[in-house]
Write a structure and sequence with these properties.
single chain; alpha+beta; three-stranded antiparallel beta sheet; extended; 79 residues; 2 helices
Length: 79
């Protein structure tokens, strides 16, 4: 939450809980179409996790993102 509050403090706008359906760029601005509205901006931060590549590929951006699962096991011996 600290990063989000700093982002807002410096002028960023956060739209939580709005799945992004489409990202379109005209070169100068980016238009995001979500489940609630459409937004235009000069800069966008996509925080879509493993789905980020699905949103950036139509823009011609191929990001080398991979989903990795890490499992750890902690065994404790209590004496």
């Amino acid at each position: 939450m600290c990063v989000q509050s700093q982002f807002v403090k410096y002028g960023g706008v956060i739209h939580d809980g709005e799945p992004v359906h489409l990202v379109v760029s005209d070169g100068d601005t980016v238009t995001l179409t979500t489940s609630k509205s459409s937004y235009k901006a000069r800069n966008v931060i996509l925080a879509a996790g493993p789905w980020t590549s699905l949103l950036t590929e139509p823009l011609g951006l191929s990001l080398p993102l991979e989903v990795c699962l890490y499992y750890s096991s902690v065994n404790r011996i209590l004496v």
